[in-house]
What does this fold into?
Amino acid sequence: MEEHIGDTLERILERNARVEGDKAWETSLTRIASIALVTYICAALVLLVIGVSRPFLSALIPVLGFVLSTQSLPLLKTWWLKRRKSRDTI
It folds into this structure.
């Protein structure tokens, strides 16, 4: 069956809206804070169970690593994309 152009356009617009929502979620402060909180709780519990001294302070290490990676990776991505684009045009 032949699909109408209007139906195709509507499906494309719906898909674009989903993709934009996914992109917004990936970079949202809510997502980053949620992952950081869950990471902190899990790390603190594990460190507490295995008897590490100052587990609540030590649990900050993986959280800080995660937060720093979310802040630095966009810069790395931009650099990589520029490098890739210049390489592809050669």
About this structure: The first helix runs from residue 5 to 26. The radius of gyration is 21 Å. The chain has a mean pLDDT of 91.
